[in-house]
């Protein structure tokens, strides 16, 4: 399955834009919200801010280029999500690692999320790019 992923952080919350090339679909995976929660968040995907990126992703998946986009409607996928408000980045990183076009991420326990958090922090902390430089 060919997909394009765009992780987004806005107002200290992470979510994932996904473009499915084969199905020519564009959607949002958000571990905390099931619909777009507020008007300012919709503005973050306006043409002036992120619209160019979304427009190019839409063209890549086969949709026509729209030069006069005022508002972009992105469907939210209804999935079980985070229980603790600061776990959104953990969910997004894990989705990027395991996503295969089916919802394998449903019903995560808090223990699993805690494990992912430790796993990702360890990877980031001990990555070769994170070593002390002379």
Automatic annotation (TrEMBL):
One of its GO terms (biological process) is proteolysis. GO terms for molecular function: cysteine-type peptidase activity. The keyword DNA damage does not apply. It holds the Pfam family Peptidase_C48. Gene3D superfamilies: Adenoviral Proteinase, Chain A (3.40.395.10). Residues 4-120 form the Ubiquitin-like protease family profile domain. Keywords: Hydrolase, Protease. Belongs to the peptidase C48 family. This is Ubiquitin-like protease family profile domain-containing protein.
């Amino acid at each position: 399955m060919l997909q394009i992923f765009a992780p987004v952080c806005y107002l200290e919350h992470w979510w994932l834009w996904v473009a499915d090339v084969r199905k020519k679909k564009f959607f949002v995976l958000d571990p905390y919200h099931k619909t777009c929660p507020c008007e300012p968040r919709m503005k973050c995907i306006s043409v002036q801010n992120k619209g160019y990126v979304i427009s190019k992703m839409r063209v890549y998946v086969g949709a026509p280029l729209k030069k006069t986009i005022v508002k972009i409607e992105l469907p939210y996928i209804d999935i079980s999500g985070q229980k603790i408000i600061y776990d959104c980045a953990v969910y997004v990183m894990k989705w990027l690692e395991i996503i295969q076009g089916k919802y394998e991420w449903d019903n995560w326990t808090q223990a699993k999320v805690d494990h992912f958090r430790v796993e990702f922090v360890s990877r980031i902390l001990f990555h070769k790019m994170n070593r002390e430089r002379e």
